[in-house]
Amino acid sequence: MEERKKERLEKEREEDEKTERAGEALSRSKRPYKWAMHDNWEPLKQYYKRNWEEVFIPLTTNDDTVLHVVAYAGRSDVLEFLISLVTTATNDPRKLRHALVLENGHGNTILHEVVASGNLKAAMLLVSHDNSVRSELIARQDVDQTNEYERDVIDARSRSIVEIENKLGETPIYRAASYGHTKLIDFFHKQYVNTERHFTRSVDRMSVLHIAVINQHFDTAVWLLKKYPFLAKTREDDGFTSLQLLAQMPSAFQVYNRESLWKMLIHKCLSEDDSVDGTAPNQNGDIESRWIPQLPTSCLSKKLTRWPRVFSILKQIKKEKTLSELTRLLVEKDYSWVESKKRKKDKTISLVSSQKDIAAICGDGRETKKSTIYNYTPLLIATSTGILPLVKRIYEVHPQAIEAHDIGSQQNILHMSIKHRQLQIFRLVKRRRAITWRLTSRIDSDGNTILHRAADMANYSPDTQRVSGPALQLQEELRWMVRVGKITPPHYIMHRNNKGVTAEELFNSEHEKLLHSAQTWIKDTAQSCSTVAALVATVVFAAAYTAPGGYNSGGVPVLRHSPLFSIFIITGVVSLISSLSSLVTFLSILTSPFEYKNFHHSLPLRLHLGFAFLFFSLVTAMLAFTATVVLLIHLNEKLTWSLFYVAAFLPVSVFGMQLPLYAGFSHALIFLFKKVKKFIVKQKPSISKGFIEC
Prior knowledge:
CATH class of the largest domain: Mainly Alpha
Oligomer: single chain
Number of helices: 34
Transmembrane segments: 567-590, 611-633, 645-673
Largest sheet: none
Mean pLDDT: 77
Helix content: 55-70%
Keywords: Membrane, Transmembrane, Transmembrane helix
Pfam family, one: PGG
Strand content: under 5%
Domain PGG: 520-630
CATH topology of the largest domain: Serine Threonine Protein Phosphatase 5, Tetratricopeptide repeat
CATH superfamily of the largest domain: Ankyrin repeat-containing domain
GO cellular component, one term: membrane
Radius of gyration: 35 Å
């Protein structure tokens, strides 16, 4: 037992030392990592000009070198500078060849990362360098009869960088299709005649057309179909064709312009103009615009895209046109309907799904065995507990740690901040756009995307929402889904986790109880407040016919000439209108459908509006009462102004703590009372004369 214990301790010590050495090595390169992540390229170039050997040293936890990071950023100028450093410093083609074929943790070469950025110039640069260095290696072997270059020449002859596959079995040509970069695919198509063997990745037999359709790059899919019609019939491991996958994407066909009349009119006018095209006005590297397809420009679109809403309509028109053409091409190649002739036994209609279907649709997506957060790294623990200063400090000292993930759950800081509802940490990560791009596409070990984590309530805590009431909590959950959805790649919305559940299905099942509580709460609140509003309206309505000071023999109010009587009438009318408006607002809540979409905007807005009307009706009712009392005790000036200030501060002190939105009323009331006081002081002799006459 002692020997085994010693062996175990020795092994753990070796692992700790190995981890420490790797961490120290990454810490030495934290400055160039920061420069690259913040697009500060000049100091990075100067740093590697003095230390060109570190070009081959990993810069991230994913074994990305500076070449990989620069290539993913699409900076062809910096990439050419670094390649020239390797070439001039060594004058050995093997070093450059090593740099071109160097792989990161995912098996991606520099060309894989360049293709992801869509930079055609950088891709042409790498292909040109690869062709020249391969030719030079072969030529040097012919001159040098030794075996010094034999291994490198065999590798150079066997494959170019365009043919290298990553761990998913994706070549750069396949990766260009997955990111929707049609120009890059066309470039590779012209350079290499035999591109068909690059059109399927080995891990799941998914073709380039499958991945283009799933990622909603419909223009790329149309280009592929026109060049290679046989792709329409290819099937992936699960047996689906591209048309079958497209048939499972209702969101791709959804029309977004029916929400308002003017959008429908603009959409109708622009859709009939074939010359109209869309292009992003100014994306500025925003993470949410990274997934917007780059559309060609035109004279008309340059003028129209000054308005983002018009640009969204133009983008939708472009998508509809390409999707329509893609659908047409796929349907023309599809003959699966012929198999309907092969019948077995006719089945009757059934409104009940099988148990297998129910399990697939209604699964909650939660882990059956929850792991404690204390098994994670300190950064992930601080993220889950919401300790923002600790997260900032870790990021300052070890900036590469932000890309690290938990080995067991495969969750990164973005997953953790979303599922634990840590908004400040989420915003902190989102501000680093270059980092966020790399984190949003990660899927954890349970098959959950960041949108699934936003829908999951396993780690939900109402304390993090800082709102009271189930209805407002549900509204915050819906807003959280929308917020995360903005940085989620569009095709991830249809993704199903290991339990076959999409993010929307998971959200509906997880929030079913909260929806029921929100429905009950908002109904009870609306009923109670409508009762109070009706009571205030009744009292104010009755007070309107009971003038202070009474009436004369002709039925005319005695104090009608007093300014305070005018205040009494005005505040009474305003109170009556506000209370009735509040009553109508709360009644509209009670008659509304209590579905998820209503709790996102309309119901909370009506609730706040009803509270505002009710509060204002109570304030004006109190002012009307105060004006009545002052009419009767106006000779005691000190007591009069004491009543005014009590009327101003009492409603705020009562309601202000519960409804901070209305705390600003106190300043308006104080200003109003000062004006009234000044007016009464000026008119004091006439007011006293009016009372004496009465």
